[in-house]
Amino acid sequence: MKRILIHSVLTLMLALILGLWNQWYTVIIAAGFSSYIVKLKGPWVFFAPFIVIGLDWAIEAALIGAANDFVLTQKIGVLLPLNGNTTAVIAVTAVLGGLFAGAGSLVGRSLRALQKN
Amino acid sequence: MKLFKLLLSLAFCGALFYIGHFGLGTLPPLGKFMNPYSGFWQNETTESSGEQLALDGLSAAVTVHYDAQLIPHVFAENDLDLYRTQGYLTAKHRLWQMEFQTYAAAGRLSEIVGAAAIEYDRGQRRKGMVFGAENALDEMLKDPVLAARIEAYSAGVNQYISSLEPKDYPVEYKLLNYAPEPWQPLKSALLLMYMTDMLAGGDADLENSNFISLFGKETFELLFPEFLADQDPVIPRERDWSDFGEVTVPEVPASKSGIALVNKTLDQPDPDNGSNNWAVSAEKSLNGYPILANDPHLGLNLPSIWYVMQLATPDHNVMGATLPGALGVIIGFNEHIAWGVTNATRDVKDWYTITFTDESKTAYVYGEESKPINTVIEEIKVKGGETYLDTVRYTHYGPITYDESFKGNGRDNLAMKWIGHQPNSNQNTFLKLNRATNYDAYVDAISTYTAPAQNFVFASKENDIALWIQGKIANKWEQQGKFVLDGSNPEHEWQSYIPQPHNPHVKNPERQFVSSANQHPTDEAYPYYVYDANYEQYRNRTINDFFRALEKISVEDFKALQSNNFNLKASEALPSMLALLEAESYKALGSAEGYLKTLKDWDYSNDKNSLGASVWEAWWTTFYAMTWDEFETSEVALHWPDSYQTVWLLKNHPELDFFDRLATAEKENATAIVKASFDQAVKALDELSATGASLDWATYKGTYVAHLLQGLPAFSRFNLPVGGNGGIVNAMKKNHGPSWRMIVALSDETKALGAYPGGQSGNPGSKHYDDLLDRWAAGEYYELNFMKASEESSAVSFSSTFTPKN
Predict the structure, then answer these.
(1) Tell me, what's the pLDDT at B802?
(2) For chain A, how many structural domains are there in total?
(3) Is the dihedral of CA B468, B473, B478, B480 positive or negative?
(4) I want to staple A77 with a disulfide (CB 3.0 to 4.6 A). Which of A19, A82, B97, B288 is the partner?
(5) Is the pLDDT of residue B260 over 90?
(6) Which of B8, B17, B714 lies closest to A76 in CB terms?
(7) CA dist., res. B564 & res. B725, Å (int)
(8) What is the pLDDT of residues B300-337, one digit of tens each?
């Protein structure tokens, strides 16, 4: 559990720092690096960064949206199409962030395993 | 095994990265687009505060006050600072739109949307859109004052673009995964070409030639007369043209051109691209000062085609509708005058058959000699595909648009001669109008204007009202260019232009008002040849009848007229159609009986709640389509007769062959078509009604304002509660109508009202994206806060200050 916590904090911190470059894929790098440094086991390799980055993206999106009455979120909800449902747009945002981070984490973990061989 | 796991995880991660960064099929790049730190979420914002910014190249501080509608009121110390700031602010609020429109003009949409746009882009290149823009820019840059202004505007746009990081890009860039490129003065010229193409890019010459080949000249004259007896031309019939003295009109040459039938022509601009404008004199005005109004009818799009601004220096102060990409105010007012425009439709695009001297296609026959071809290889870059190369050959007339590789009849070479290609300084006309203080300055401003020809309405505080039909118009022989011309015959050239002072105009007419609505400019007495395939026949009479009926006119009357839903066409056609229906002892059964009663009780007003309007429009459109089914099924390009002539034929030639339906064995006449179309309309209305849909006119019509990007539903607005229709003063069609409504009262303190279907911000995430739309739909207006100086006023919501950069 402790490793999961450390991993999560590291992933989030790295994501926020690397995020200053404004490149979306820094979440992949952050999660990958964390999994290379901190060893996680089983499904947590994927789900720990999935949850932490998913939450990060969801909270940030919700805050931005709420500050502008979800004017654009609702329109993107029509575009995707999610029937204009703003919660669904936030959920999709979160899942995507989680997927990218989870995928990065799997690479970091595999690299670690290979090098520790 | 571990290596395998690594490779597997890399593949999984790589696939996600690809989809996240580049997108897949129609999917946007999901990572880029959806992440909250740089994706669309960053566009979830409304403009609510000003900025303090140092701008490159400014020579003094510029103050910008925004009012509640996000209209910027710009106060600069000199003209160059003013246009630099205009460029910056326009880009700030409309960057994607202004760039997209110039991509469209230049035939570069394939770079953004991929191979689907190649045919469109080829059409734009083959129309010579860039050729025309370059000619215009060359001319504009000859004037050092204008050149400096255009450069300043361009620099202002670029300063905004260079301030952006990808996370700041307008959401459309993120959706389509591309980035803005630097602005150039050429893009301002391209934007003006975009408008010229929209307003003066249509013609029916090839279609007319086709018609004569199929049906003969006599039928052509019957279906497409040049003058209609009861029309009310822009210049009142009372106008005596004798002051022109003896005018010279070219002789009709002996030989005419022949051509095989043309199957496919370029898409035509909407024939209803037009407008209303009018002004009343101080004498006819209830309050004793001139009043002027204008409402240009264009495609209803978001972001709106117009962007409202006030632009002031110590030397002039002007406000009104600007076009993102062009300098100054296009339709507006200053402290002395007001002006507006409607399209002065005229056949300014002609087609010439070209005969190459040999197969090398490097020269073509011209009289006894030959002329060289200038070959241009157009490179159309395609997103996600290979660059498409298209060879376009230029003659001295203009580009060969149609040849064996592009539309036309797959054989003949047809070159376009278009006023839009000619060098011009039309941008300057508007900058001069912005500064005009009286009638003479107005005439001076418009006198060099070439295209798209406009009916420039004018009113001043010196109590002058006027209307000039201004454009550079070829002085043609009778029917020259109405049909295809022979490019090898020098006699078929445009030989001269109508002298500018002879362009039709009227100042302070006895009737105390001037107006235009895209109708015929003059009566038959005007000494030059006038032709266009799309003159308007209804709005003009409704407007002029309105003014004649009222002794005094107020601003409230102006508002009522802009929202006037009287359907003159229906009032002229419906009684005859009902009479024909009843003459047949028509037994209306079921719902038909109700619809018939509704029509009989209808007041000919296309009000939004009217059922009669829906029944009429359903019946009329069915009747029109049944009558002209020969046009629908034709394999060659044809121009359809207009509504007015259709009604006239119904009343005067009910046995005309065209009333026979091709799809039936029996021979129909007008009466039979009236009945058959009514039955079909009733059936369609019943089917619609059975779905639970309301049949009130606004719902039936379903007016919408479409996002520029192929009407992307998420960024569009649908089912607006509006009445009106084409041919009605309130020209609100399904996706076309009054794109800007302006009323200016030239009292001591100029008072102006405005409304338009959109909002100042081009950002779909902004509350100002469409916040003006609902009041526009309701026929309401915003007071345009014409500020006198840069001091704060109660109308200011927030302000920005731009200072020179050291």
Answers:
(1) 97
(2) 1
(3) negative
(4) A82
(5) no
(6) B714
(7) 10
(8) 999 999 999 999 999 999 999 999 999 999 999 999 99
Question: What pLDDT does residue A117 have?
Answer: 60
Task: Tell me which residue of B478, B474, B417, B473 sits closest to B251, measured CA to CA.
Answer: B478
Burial class (CB in 10 A: 0-12, 13-18, 19+), A1: exposed
- SS3 assignment, position B75: strand
Residues B428-469: pLDDT tens digits? 999 999 999 999 999 999 999 999 999 999 999 999 999 999
For chain B, say whether A46 makes contact (Cβ under 8 Å).
Answer: no
Alpha-carbon distance of B132 to B139, in angstroms, equals 11
Question: B595-639 pLDDT, tens per residue?
Answer: 999 999 999 999 999 999 999 999 999 999 999 999 998 999 999
Q: Quote the pTM value.
A: 0.96
Q: Please, are residues B607 and B723 in contact by the beta-carbon 8 Å criterion? A: yes
Is the peptide bond preceding residue B372 cis, with omega within 30 degrees of 0? no
Q: Work out the average pLDDT over B371-381.
A: 98
Between CA B188 and CA B194 the distance in angstroms is 10
**A contact residues 5-44, partner B, Cβ 8 Å cutoff:** 19, 22-25, 27-28, 32
Cα separation of B473 and B478, whole Å? 14
Residues B7 and A112: their CA atoms lie apart, in Å, by 13
C-alpha distances out from residue A58 to A35, A46, B322, B716, Å? 22, 18, 40, 26
Which 157-196 residues of chain B touch chain A by CB within 8 A? 165-167, 171, 175
Three-class DSSP category at B695: coil
B113-151 confidence digits (pLDDT tens) = 999 999 999 999 999 999 999 999 999 999 999 999 999
Nearest chain A residue to B46 by CA distance is A68
Domain B568-695 has CATH 1.10.3470: no
Amino acid at B531: Y
Amino acid at B124: Q
Cβ pair A56, B689 in contact under 8 A:
no
The interface pTM score, or ipTM, of the predicted complex is: 0.97
Mean pLDDT of B582-600: 88
State whether residue B410 is helix, strand or coil: coil
Q: Nearest chain A residue to B45 by CA: give it.
A: A68
- Residue B484 in contact with residue B259, Cβ under 8 Å? yes
Measured between CA atoms, the residue of chain A closest to residue B765 is: A72
The C-alpha angle A67, A72, A77, rounded to 5 degrees, equals: 120
Is the pLDDT score of A20 beyond 90?
Answer: no
Q: How many other C-beta atoms lie within 10 A of the C-beta of residue B198?
A: 18
Length of chain B: 806
Q: How many CB atoms within 10 Å of residue B91? A: 27
What are the residue boundaries of the structural domains of chain B, listed by start? 568-695
Q: Six-digit token pair at B171?
A: 């959401």
pLDDT digits (tens, 9 = 90+) for B69-116: 999 999 999 999 999 999 999 999 999 999 999 999 999 999 999 999
Q: Could you tell me the two tokens for B662?
A: 């091709």
Domain residues for the domain of A29 are 2-115
Residues of A in contact with B10 (CB under 8 A): 107, 110
> CA-CA distance, B85 to B160, in Å (whole number)?
10
pLDDT exceeds cutoff 80 at B806 = no
Q: What does the alpha-carbon distance between residue B144 and residue B160 come to, in Å, rounded to a whole number?
A: 24
**Beta strands B703-707 and B301-302: pairing type?**
parallel
Number of Cβ within a 10 Å radius of residue B45: 17
SS3 B429: helix
| CB-CB neighbors (< 8 A) of A104 in chain B | 13
Give the contacts of B285 (CB within 8 A, at least 6 positions apart). B291, B552, B553, B554
**What mean pLDDT value characterizes chain A?**
94
Burial state string for B378-391 with b = 16 or more CB within 10 A and e = fewer than 16: bebebbeeeebebe
